[in-house]
Amino acid sequence: MTVAVASNFSLAVDEIAAQFTATTGQPIRVAKASTGKLHAQIVNGAPFDVFLAADSARPASLEISGEGVPGTRFTYALGELVLWSRELDDCRGALQDPGNIRIAIANPAIAPYGAAARDFLQQVGLWESATSQLVVGENISQALQFVASGNAQLGLVARSQLQVPALPDATCTWPVPFALHAPIEQQAILLKRGAHTEGAPLFLQFLRSDAGRAIIERHGYRLPELSE
């Protein structure tokens, strides 16, 4: 069984997969990339059984097109965006007067956290003026790497990433208010290949279980209502 997973959810899915395998005996392979890249691979026939996206639009499109199994799509996590730096003293203040500061974001065209970062910069009137200072990563993991390595001084990253092992100590962080960007509603869907397996539906059940939700929350996400 292969699970395609948005980059921001990397740490959480590793723990979830390990606990699922320990409980059921079913091994899991995990493919990690930006949501847009994984979606394109699924459309082109990649052998994935489950898709854990960082948005709701792409799982919905797979359900409509038939690559996703109707009625299996649900929200498993609600993401949060933060400003993060290992060099600056005041993340919010630096963004209000960026000067020559390089700002890392994920690619808005393929990464939902990048789209949220763009929304935020547009909302605060900085998108056009900051465009020349952006350092754009293929996914949110690469955006964080740019800031951690010093290639950018400030990053708009996922709150969940602050638990990355060996991440340099932050000099400042600032949670971006939810009202300043579109909701980061992360949805899962069973793919048509996974519908013919025993493990894929069980994995999605585990994701919604108390044990799965506890791991998700521990990794820095808000939890949706189960009715979602």
Walk me through the structure.
This protein is an alpha/beta fold. The protein has 2 domains: 112 residues, 3-Layer(aba) Sandwich (D-Maltodextrin-Binding Protein, domain 2); 95 residues, D-Maltodextrin-Binding Protein, domain 2 (3-Layer(aba) Sandwich), CATH 3.40.190. Helices cover 36% and strands 21% of the residues. Strands 2-1-3-10-4 form a 5-stranded mixed β-sheet, with helices on both faces. The chain has a 5-stranded mixed β-sheet with strand order 7-6-8-5-9, sandwiched between helices. α1 links the parallel β1 and β2. The longest helix is centred in the N-terminal third of the chain and has 15 residues. It is globular, with a radius of gyration of 18 Å.
Shape: globular
Structural class: alpha/beta
What is the number of beta strands?
Answer: 10
Distance between the termini: 25 Å
Helix content: 25-40%
Output the CATH class name of the largest domain: Alpha Beta
- CA radius of gyration is 18 Å
- By CATH, the architecture of the largest domain is named 3-Layer(aba) Sandwich
Overall mean pLDDT: 94
Our count of helices gives: 9
Describe the biggest sheet? 5 strands, mixed
* Spans where pLDDT lies below 50 across 5 or more residues: none
Percent of sequence in beta strands: 15-25%
Reading the helices and strands in chain order gives EHEHEHEEHEHHEHEEEHH
